[in-house]
Specification:
The complex is a heterodimer.
Chain A lengths: L1 H54 L5 E2 L5 H4 L1 E2 L3 H8 L2 H20 L1 H12 L3 H12 L6 H11 L6 H8 L13 H27 L3 H9 L4 H26 L6 H7 L5 H4 L2 H11 L3 H29 L7
Antiparallel strand pairs in A: 1-2
Helix pairs in contact in A: 3-15, 4-9, 5-9, 6-9, 7-12, 9-11, 11-15, 14-15
Chain B lengths: L1 H41 L3 H5 L13 H8 L1 H33 L6 H13 L4 H10 L6 H6 L5 H14 L2 H9 L4 H12 L1 H17 L2 H6 L8 H11 L1 H6 L8 H40 L3
Classes of the chains: A mainly alpha, B mainly alpha.
Chain lengths: 322, 299
Amino acid sequence: MVASKKQASAPAEMLQQKTFKQRFMKVWNRDWQLFLLCLPALLYVAVFCYGPMYGIQIAFKDYVARKGIAGSEWVMFDNFIRFFNSPNFWILLRNTLTLSLYALIAGFPFPIFLALLLNQAANKKFRKIVQTVIYAPHFISVVVMCGMITLFFSYSTGIVNTLLTSFGFDRFFFMGSETAFPHLYVWSDIWQSTGWGTIIYIAALGSISQDQYEAAKIDGASKWKMLLYIDIPNLLPTIVTMFILRTGSIMSIGFQKAFLLQTSMNLGASEIISTYVYKVGLEQGQFDYSTAIGLFNNIINIILLLIVNKLSKKLSENGGLF
Amino acid sequence: MNQASTVKRSKEDLLFDILNYLVLGVFLIIVLYPLYFIVIASFSDPSSVLGGEVVFLPKNVDFSGYKTIFEDTRIWNGYYNTFIYTILGTILNVMLTMGIGYPLSRRYFSGRKAIMIYLMITMYFGGGMVPTYLLVKDLGLRNTSTIMIVMGAVSVFNVIITRSFLEANIPSELEEAASIDGCSQLKFFFKMVLPLSGSIIAVLILYYGIWHWNDYMTGLIYLDDGDKFPLQLIIRSLLIQTQVAANDVSDIESLSDRLKVAESIKYGVIIISSLPVLVLYPFLQKHFTKGVLVGAVKG
């Protein structure tokens, strides 16, 4: 029985081999125009996304511009060891994690909370106005955002300090304070991104079937009860997914805002890995060392993402992110 | 008893509604007030603003800040540069993204899976800042306008949005019918897909356009010449870099007039630089949110 199966499969394999080229040509003849359409984007990605990956090797080298990327000498893990042993390492790691964890913990609940409230607001016009306004900050550029922060919190001229003094408090040098920096960073972020963050939750709430509300109404449930027993349970899968997405990007906290809010006096709290990579690399020209730090950060990111993806596959039947 | 419960219910609901509108109202004000303050401060007398007299209404209306801005050639040059970078960059973005988004949306397309993996990898792993810088330098694109247009030409996230949209909106039956009539894939793309993709193209123009308009990193890393600087780099020096100097001065009296002018134009600079986005925003809001929702469909 087994033998006869083997015998039967042998010619079939040959048949497949014979047709492989034909099949390829058939597909190619059918799809070559689609490949042509893809080509420009594929080339761009090859040059600007995959191209730089070639340069990653300088993280393991003693890079000398004159010798080039390939010609520089290998030093293996020296750059990494130097980074791990430098006193900056723990400070950078602490600052990066403080900012991102604080932003995650403080910022995550706001869009959910706001979406739940908006969903219950029966007045369509009011709802529309609120939505239009709260989405707007999302489109403000980082530079303008940081400009606004420095303006409002300026020591001598900022409106916040003006208010503080009018209530009898002392002026506070927000921009030069290491303790104030994480709060400024995180709460301005919450101000800017909460509205935009509601979109996905509002959509999820909108897709809850009306039957559930009808049934609850017949049972005499109040709006508050409906929010508690219909809205929140229905929103839970979306919340979990969003939380997982956010945790996965904990180490990839943005360079721009921290960089723009830095002053010489708050550096102890505002220097994060990405700003350090910029300074060491492009300002001081230590290309190899800076690449090593960047690579370290990227690898931690990927590990986090893989862990989080695995967890999400376990938690929800919906599956992972990829 | 039934009636009693209805009354109780509506009373509870009324309280809930009041609280709800109250909280939403507070939130609305928290978001709106800083924006409103910038507007009124931009055309109030600088001394009143610095003295904290401008809180709810503009005071001693004065357009000297705007006048200074209009006379500043750096700002206009930056405006012009950003305008060019945004328009050319966005055209490139949309062409590349539609070009790759359409084939990826065809389920029969044989390269579909491999190309998706090829793109997704770059979302999570890249060369990093320095290797990218070295590459751009080797290509001879450092300190050129070209890099400002070319950088970020393909956003994988936007490709995914486009793919999802086209999957849902260009039925394969349409393509089959066209191919029976002898229409090639390229012809179908240009004659049928593009005209039917108006709303996704609008989303792409908005996302990419705003990205270019707000882009600050590319200029910071790759440009040296001030006359090539985009608006964001110019306003950074106006908004933030002069700030530390102002902070070092401990009391208002000792602020020199020059500094006062520097302070006073900041509000106007914020308005002027955000103007195109602010003006377009209310009309285009629908498209913005649509992008988020199409993108939320799992890839």
